[in-house]
Every structure is written in structure tokens, then in C-alpha cells.
Fold each of these.
Amino acid sequence: MPLTTDPDTITHAIQLAVAPVFLLTAVSGMIGAVAGRLARIIDRARFVEERAHLSEDEAVVQRAHIELAELRNRGRLANGCIALLTTCAFLIGLTIILLFLSETTGAQSSRWAVGSFLTGVACFLLALLCFLAETLIATRLLNFRVRRVSASAPMSK
């Protein structure tokens, strides 16, 4: 399977292989966003754990355990999201390689390229679902805190 040196074929191969790179930009942006959320989840969990360890009030410790369980679920979703996004990036990179080799060597790898691209897109969609679930849990927890604070605040005239 010799590699062609025809400039037109090489140019066309690069054009064909570069198209999936745009998805890599979206994936890298998502990884950055989810990694930031994961860092905030971890920071909040450390704060809640420390507050629970220092407190002798059983109600505070009980609330801390409930919040830590929610944070653990959010962390799992964020980690799953990052794993899916990383898998997506790998598969898109593989797609680029397969498309380039298919175009420049005549190898019959286009079927593999389609499979790797579609699997990568499926991973991206699943990652978006994980991200949505994590943000819904975070919002639900926020709404619970706001209601609890509003209910315990004294009425002012």
C-alpha cells in the first residue's frame, strides 16, 4: 500500500480529513467546562466534609451527608462526561487518520472511518446528556437551598 505523492490527492486528503477537526474544538471546549464544574464540585465537597467534621450538631451532620451524596452523584456524572468526551476526541482523531490513509493509499478504510466517526458523535451526545443531568442535579440542589433559606428567614415589613 504505497503512499501517493500526487499533490492534488494529498490536498484533497487533507481537506477531507480536516472536516472532523471542528468537532474536536467543541469537544475540547466541553472538556474545559466540565473539568471546571468538577473542580467546583470537589471544592464544595471538601468544604461540606470539613464543616461536618467540625460540627457537633447532628442536624448539620445529617444535611452534610445528604449534600455529599448529591455531590458524589454530580462528580460521577462529570467524570463520565469527561470519559465520553475523551473517547469522542480519540475516535474523531482516528477518523481523521483513517480518512487520510484511505484517500492517500487507496486502503479500504472508509467503512472504519464512518464507524469511528459515528461512534465518536454518539459519545459526544451521551456526554451532553451527562452534562445536562449534572446541571439539573445542581439546579435542584440550589433550588432546595433557596427554599430552605427563604422558609427560615424572618418576615420583614
Amino acid sequence: MTDTLENIQLLSELDEEEVAVVEKNCRWKTYGVNEQIIDQHSDSRDIFFVVDGHVRVVNYSLSGREITFDDLDPGAHFGELAAIDGLPRSASVMALDEARVASLPAEQFHQVVLEHPAIALKLMKHLAHLVRTSTTRIMDLSTLGANNRIHADLLRLARKVTEDDMTAVIKPIPVHSDVASRVSTTRETVARVMNDLARKDVVERQKDALLVKDLERLEDMVEDVRGD
């Protein structure tokens, strides 16, 4: 793993010297599988950059059930809300695999944003995306049944990787418990819906991937229920 921020999307407008300054102000740490990076309600204010590995943004119900908000790849960032408003963390973040993460104190982050309007604009667009994504998720949870929420989650994953808008190859195969955590249902329900989609020839489980064979049909299944 290399300690560099050159691939962090939020900082892509900076030149090499400016990135080097940010790097010097960061703290660097490697987290193990399932190790917690930040805890919900903690008072830390740093913004974090995912240099290597993958992390998951989660929350927990009163009963202890894990609710997944998002999985982040190398190049992503998290923790910007507390860095901006100074309030406690709104979610927990854990490493999915061995992850190298850089943390930048809020004061230095504010300075970077104020000195570089292009970064401020990227941050605004990112926050707007979070609001739109959250709105869609709230509507799905409020109006769709469990089966339809699973269809919608699968469609979201497929749209991220499709190359022809007709099929999609999702790697690795979505873990049923992860899907259940994202759409607030059970693993058994996810398994049943996936089997049903396979019988309808919409998806096909391969050795190391899930092939969405009919993306248009999957979209119709979701849009018919959403009313899009």
C-alpha cells in the first residue's frame, strides 16, 4: 500500500504539490477486516480518505440489526458531515477488507475547501447526490414491498457495471445478508427473490459473478411498481 492521495476523487483538482501538502497533514492507518474506523455518535471531526481496500457505512437498530448505507471503494471519502457541521457522527464505518485510510483534521479540511472552490463545488455535488440517494431510499422503504426493494437494489448494482444497458455482470456475487441489510429484510427473503429471478431467466448465477441477463425486464419490474 502506498501513502498517496493522488487517486482520491474529491482532491482530483489539486496539483501534485497541493496534494503533497494535504498528505503531510493526514494521519495514516491500516484497518483489518471488520475493524471499526469510526463509531456513530463519536465526537471526532476528521474527514477520511479510502486509499486502499473497501469500507462500509452502517448504522444499527435498537435491536442490534445492521443497516448498510453504502460500500465505498478506493478513491472515496467519508466523514465530511461531522467535519463540516461539528456535530457527532451520523453513522459508523468499518473496514470490509484490509483498508488503508488517511484522516485529515477538520481545520485543515476547511482550509483546503476555502482555498479551492473547485473542491467546494465537488463536495456540494457529492452532498446533493447523498440527498437524492437518501430520498429514493426513503421512498422505496416507505412504498415498496421487500421483493420490490430487492429488485431495486439489484438494479442499482447492475446499472453501475453495465456496458450495453442490456446485461450486467456483478462481481463479486451479492451476499444475501448484505442485500438484506441494505433493503431492510431477511436473508431468506433475498434468497427466495433471487431464485425467482433465476427461474424467470432475469439473472444467472455464475462461478464468481451474477449475470443480469435481462436488464430491461428488471428495470420494468422496478419502474412498474415505483410508477416511474
